[in-house]
Amino acid sequence: MVPHLTTALSGPWMDLERRILERMPEIERWLRPLRLYGEAGAALQGLGVGEARNQESKPPQSKASDTAPSETLHVVTTEATRIAAERGAATVGTLDVLRAVMEHYGADFERALEGHSGTSVELIEQLAARTASGGSD
Prior knowledge:
Shape: globular
Distance between the termini: 27 Å
Structural class: mainly alpha
Number of domains: 1
Largest sheet: none
Order of helices and strands: HHHHHHH
Strand content: under 5%
């Protein structure tokens, strides 16, 4: 996996990063930032989900979402908002977003997670433990 290229420059570097991200499976584009931030990041890292996929794993053969990227974003944020409201939270946290992504992609998310040596069952256990301990970002 190529690290995120952060630069104040534009031009070739920005174009390179755009092309790399376009080739990355859609679910990986969600996992990448979620792994780095908040309680979701702690849960994913607790499973050993890293930047790179497991060497033995095959790249996910998951299809893109059935919706356009802007619609997928709307679906995921709406679901994350509902999840946060159900737990009585005033704000949406990264755990809510992660759960919404899991629900939206279903079996495709499971395959992507397996490529990082984790399973949804293990992740749900991590999420439950973090939610029970008051974690919400």
